[in-house]
Write a structure and sequence with these properties.
It contains 14 helices and two strands; from the N terminus they run H-E-E-H-H-H-H-H-H-H-H-H-H-H-H-H. By secondary structure, the chain is an all-alpha fold. Keywords: Membrane, Transmembrane, Transmembrane helix, Transport.
Length: 288
C-alpha cells in the first residue's frame, strides 16, 4: 500500500517542494545571468521596499475588496443551487440544469473574456444595445473603474458557480434518506426538511470550503483579471497576482515580485490556520 503512494509523493516532491528553493530570490538582488548562486544577498530589503510601496497598498486593497465581494456574493450561491436541485424530482430536468450550469467551467478565461468583451462593448455590444434601446447611453464596463469590479465578480460567478455546487450536491447525496422519511412521517414539509436535515448535513462541507476560500483571500482571480483588465482600470482592478506578473515579467524585477508572492503565500497560510481555529472554537468543526 505504501508503494502505491510513491508516485504521488514523487510528484509532490518534484513539482511542489523542489521549486520552493526559488524562494531565496526574494532575499536577493537577483541577476538572471548569475542565477541564485551568483546573485547578491540583500536580506529583507525587498520586503522593506514592499511595505513602503504605495502601489502595493493599492494593489492589496483591490485584492481584498474583490476577494471579499466574491466570498460574500458568490460563496452562498452554490449552496443554494445544491439545495434547490436536491428538491427537483424530475431527473431529466435536473440533469439538464446541472449540465447547463456546469458547462462554463470548462471554458478558458481567454474565451470567456473575449465573449464578455464583445457582449459589453460600448460599440454594438448586446448589453449596450439594450441600454440604448431604453434611451440610455453606452457604458464602457471594462474601462470604467466604477463598473470593472462588478464585471469581475459577475463573470467569475457565471463561470464557476455551477461547478462549485458539485461539492455540495455530493454532500447532500451522502445524507441518509431515512432521516427524510422519518421527518415526513412526523409531518415535516420540504422546507422544514431542508432546514432541519439538509443544511445541518452539509454544514461540515460548507465550513471546509469556507476555510479553504478564506485561505485564498489574496488570490482574487489573477488569470481572469489578467485577460480582462487594462491600464485604465489599474486603480480598481490591479491585484497581487497581476502586480507580480507585471513586475516579474514586464519589468524583470524578479526579486521584488518573488517577495510579493511569498508575502501572499504566508498571509494565505495564516488565514487558513486562523479560519480553522475560529471554526473549531465557535462551530466545533474544523479541518484538523
Amino acid at each position: 500500500m505504501y508503494a502505491l503512494l510513491l508516485p504521488g509523493l514523487v510528484f509532490l516532491l518534484l513539482f511542489k517542494y523542489t521549486p520552493m528553493y526559488g524562494i531565496l530570490i526574494a532575499f536577493q538582488d537577483f541577476n538572471i545571468f548569475g542565477g541564485i548562486g551568483g546573485s547578491e544577498w540583500v536580506g529583507l530589503a525587498q520586503f522593506e521596499k514592499l511595505i513602503h510601496s504605495s502601489d502595493f497598498m493599492n494593489v492589496l486593497i483591490n485584492t481584498l475588496v474583490i476577494s471579499l465581494y466574491k466570498i460574500v456574493i458568490l460563496f452562498p450561491i452554490p449552496v443554494l443551487i445544491a439545495l434547490l436541485l436536491n428538491e427537483v424530482k424530475r431527473m431529466f430536468f435536473k440533469r439538464t440544469i446541472q449540465t447547463v450550469i456546469y458547462l462554463p467551467h470548462f471554458l478558458s478565461w481567454v474565451i470567456i473574456s473575449g465573449l464578455f468583451i464583445t457582449i459589453l462593448s460600448p460599440a454594438g455590444g448586446l448589453v449596450n444595445e439594450i441600454i440604448s434601446s431604453f434611451g440610455g447611453h453606452p457604458v464602457s464596463f471594462l474601462t470604467d473603474n466604477q463598473f470593472f469590479r462588478s464585471v469581475i465578480v459577475f463573470t467569475a460567478g457565471w463561470k464557476e458557480t455551477g461547478w462549485n455546487a458539485i461539492v455540495f450536491i455530493a454532500a447532500i447525496a451522502g445524507i441518509e434518506q431515512e432521516q427524510y422519511e422519518a421527518a415526513a412521517i412526523d409531518g415535516a414539509g420540504r422546507i422544514r426538511q431542508m432546514i432541519s436535515i439538509t443544511l445541518p448535513g452539509i454544514l461540515p462541507t460548507v465550513v471546509l470550503m469556507f476555510i479553504l476560500r478564506i485561505g485564498s483571500l489574496l488570490e482574487a482571480g489573477t488569470e481572469q483579471i489578467l485577460t480582462m483588465y487594462n491600464p485604465l482600470v489599474y486603480q480598481t482592478g490591479d491585484v497581487i497576482g497581476t502586480y507580480v506578473y507585471r513586475l516579474g515579467l514586464g519589468q524583470q524585477d524578479y526579486s521584488f515580485s518573488t517577495a510579493v508572492g511569498l508575502f501572499n503565500s504566508v498571509v494565505g497560510f495564516v488565514l487558513v490556520l486562523s479560519g480553522n481555529m475560529l471554526s473549531r472554537k465557535f462551530l466545533n468543526r474544523s479541518i484538523w
